[in-house]
């Protein structure tokens, strides 16, 4: 009997020790050296004699922003599920990160608001808080320490394909064109991946690409932080569509270098932070008072803005014909609205899927359908969370999945109840932090508890009727 998606998700996200290494590959080539590519390379190092990462940027252990990560200057979240995977592949990672200056936001120093109402405490898991370039540099440093992992600087231009499989990767470097023969290729080139074009050029089936237009706008700035251990280290203020329309919310968190990182987001024509004065004014006036104390500190550098037009997913599992010795991970498979912080954690779970696939010593002469079946569970979970929330925004027009009105009503009940009911809040956090499959929230018991909690809250507020 097929295992449920929830059970598959649980097995993928397990944080136990990796399977004992078993070399089944000669050379593996990873296209792209961002978080998804680095974690794939770490997994491959257990199964390949040699792992080659090809990236157009210079990949060093330094924590500088890279051209190949245009959203790198924006605030990022490493969800607890992602932290668990990093600790799995790099033992002692959290301790090393803290020693290097990464801030640990325990549940005691985190607050979340929904439409200005302080939510009850949910997850007790501590969160690592750092800038994206700094966190990526730590992952890169640990990956490049591995003796069988190396980097080639170049721009990938295509694949060599036989009648059944990928055989090599072509790239352009400062020294001219190059070719890397490969026993396995991992595409980690991000949301703008050209893999579909390369496959179509080689006569293969074109990848199905789903887009949902979201038009999310970000503005992020950093401020000087005077306290090394602030009483409040992370505050998230969520704005629901019914209360704020297309204003998504705001967040601040302590990061390395004695800094605060502050972000505000909006959909459609809501474009916060066009100037530093505008961003500071709106954070001070429109959000909970904790923001005022942060933005009145000295701003360091300029406001960094970012706009993402759509969420994307490429459904590899739906292809009838696909070359062997080729998989894809990270944003090259699924790229969501970054406001939900799923990107790095999804990439980490894709690496776990790759480890499970390779540990079974698969037949590499056929398409990696077992891998794509595992990965689909992770993609479906993250896609469902992000797109269902986006579809409630006035400026997002679909497409709406079957049963959306019912699922949306249930989701709203649960989110509303997470403000006042600690049990619902913990379950809500477990799903949104990607520790548990979304079905964990869809149980009759959880839904009924949420409805009761909301009825009690309305009764206390003098509005006893359920809408």
Automatic annotation (TrEMBL):
InterPro entries: FAD-bd, FAD/NAD-bd_sf. Residues 29-360 form the FAD-binding domain. GO terms for molecular function: FAD binding. It comes from the Bacteria. This is 2-polyprenyl-6-methoxyphenol hydroxylase-like FAD-dependent oxidoreductase.
């Amino acid at each position: 009997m097929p295992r449920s998606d929830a059970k598959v998700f649980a097995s993928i996200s397990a944080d136990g020790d990796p399977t004992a290494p078993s070399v089944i590959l000669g050379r593996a080539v990873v296209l792209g050296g961002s978080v998804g590519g680095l974690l794939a390379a770490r997994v491959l190092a257990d199964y390949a004699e040699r792992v080659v990462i090809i990236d157009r940027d210079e990949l060093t252990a330094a924590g500088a922003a890279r051209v190949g990560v245009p959203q790198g200057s924006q605030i990022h979240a490493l969800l607890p599920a992602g932290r668990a995977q990093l600790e799995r592949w790099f033992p002692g990672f959290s301790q090393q990160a803290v020693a290097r200056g990464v801030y640990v936001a325990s549940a005691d120093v985190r607050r979340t608001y929904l439409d200005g109402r302080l939510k009850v405490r949910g997850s007790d898991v501590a969160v690592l808080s750092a800038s994206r370039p700094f966190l990526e540099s730590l992952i890169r440093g640990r990956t490049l320490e591995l003796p069988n992992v190396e980097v080639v600087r170049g721009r990938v231009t295509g694949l060599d394909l036989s009648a059944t499989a990928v055989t090599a990767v072509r790239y352009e470097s400062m020294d001219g064109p190059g070719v890397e023969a490969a026993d396995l290729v991992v595409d980690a080139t991000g949301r703008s991946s050209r893999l579909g074009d390369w496959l179509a050029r080689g006569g293969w089936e074109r990848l199905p690409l789903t887009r949902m237009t979201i038009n999310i706008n970000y503005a992020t700035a950093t401020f000087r932080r005077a306290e090394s251990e602030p009483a409040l280290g992370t505050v998230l203020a969520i704005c629901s569509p019914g209360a704020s329309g297309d204003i998504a919310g705001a967040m601040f968190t302590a990061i390395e270098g004695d800094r605060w990182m502050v972000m505000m987001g909006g959909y459609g024509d809501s474009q916060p932070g066009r100037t530093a004065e505008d961003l500071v004014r709106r954070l001070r006036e429109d959000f909970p008072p904790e923001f005022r104390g942060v933005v009145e500190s000295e701003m360091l550098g300029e406001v960094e803005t970012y706009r993402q037009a759509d969420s994307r997913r490429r459904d590899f599992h739906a292809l009838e014909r696909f070359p062997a010795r080729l998989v894809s991970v990270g944003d090259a498979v699924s790229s969501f609205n970054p406001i939900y912080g799923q990107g790095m954690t999804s990439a980490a779970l894709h690496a776990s899927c790759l480890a499970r696939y390779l540990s079974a010593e698969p037949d590499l002469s056929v398409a990696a359908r077992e891998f794509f079946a595992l990965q689909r569970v992770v993609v479906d979970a993250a896609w469902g969370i992000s797109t269902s929330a986006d579809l409630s925004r006035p400026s997002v027009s679909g497409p709406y999945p079957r049963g959306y009105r019912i699922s949306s009503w249930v989701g709203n009940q649960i989110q509303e109840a997470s403000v006042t009911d600690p049990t619902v809040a913990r379950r809500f956090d477990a799903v949104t932090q990607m520790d548990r499959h979304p079905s964990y929230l869809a149980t009759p018991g959880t839904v009924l508890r949420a409805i009761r909690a909301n009825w009690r809250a309305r009764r206390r507020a003098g509005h006893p009727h359920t809408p």
